[in-house]
Design goal:
Blueprint lengths: L10 H9 L5 H4 L4 H5 L6 H13 L8 E5 L2 E10 L4 H18 L8 E6 L7 E8 L11 E5 L2 E9 L5 H14 L6 E2 L2 E2 L2 E5 L13 E7 L15
Antiparallel strand pairs: 1-6, 2-4, 2-5, 3-4, 3-9, 6-10, 7-8, 9-10
């Protein structure tokens, strides 16, 4: 495949990238800037050229981080759905927001999908579509109350169309492996796997300009207790 790395890269920088197997800008979106900088031969000017080339294509280096988060209550609607039926999950965002508005309950963050198990086109995902709230709520059977568990989370923001979210999910998982992180999961069940939809569609209808934060809870002594699904 033809290289699309920017013209003007120094020979040492180009050799460093090609020796590591990187010949396409798309490959660099799965690496943090710090990881690229560590390649022998990469200097500030080369990094700036790569940064600008990625930005011109609406992309960037992967910039994950690990941060500690406090427990956060939420209201949500659980659903089991395959990728073929994903519109049913998307529709629940408006339903949860509408329910909270009718109850006069204050939002405390962006709508999210919380994944308990991961499916595919034929196997069902088990997830909750929810919204963080300022204080604990009482559900009504369809809408349930839950908590985003406290603990350490590896996070990264995906910029662009949600259809390409899988690329950022894979990149975060690969980055976590390189960092020696262990996710808070037990078998196929996740204790804390979230996607927060930061962009308001009413304000920005262009899906290519959306921002979605991915957050995976990192396993530690406290997180080991969070893999059991709460009773409803």
């Amino acid at each position: 495949m033809t290289s699309d790395l920017p013209a003007g890269l120094s020979k040492p920088a180009l050799r460093a990238l090609t020796a590591a197997g990187y010949t396409r800008l798309e490959q660099l979106t799965k690496l943090s800037e710090a990881e690229v900088k560590r390649l022998h031969g990469m200097g500030p000017r080369a990094l700036d050229l790569l940064r600008r080339a990625l930005a011109a294509d609406g992309r960037s280096f992967l910039e994950p981080k690990v941060e500690v988060r406090a427990e956060q209550p939420y209201a949500a609607i659980p659903i089991k759905v395959t990728m073929k039926e994903w519109g049913r999950a998307n529709a629940l965002v408006g339903e949860v927001i509408g329910w909270l508005s009718r109850q006069g309950i204050e939002f405390a963050g962006a709508p999210f999908f919380r994944y308990w198990t991961i499916g595919d086109m034929d196997r069902e995902f088990d997830l909750e579509v929810g919204v963080p709230v300022a204080s604990v709520v009482s559900g009504d059977g369809r809408v349930i109350a839950g908590f985003i568990p406290s603990g350490s989370y590896a996070t990264v923001v995906h910029f662009g169309h949600p259809d390409r979210l899988v690329e950022s999910l894979q990149a975060l998982q690969e980055w976590g492996t390189r960092q020696g992180l262990e996710w808070n999961s037990r078998g196929e069940v996740w204790g804390g796997r979230f996607e927060f939809y930061l962009t308001n569609p009413a304000e920005q209808p262009d899906l290519e300009k959306w921002s979605i934060e991915i957050a995976y809870q990192v396993r530690d002594n406290s997180a080991r207790r969070e893999t059991n699904r709460p009773r409803r």
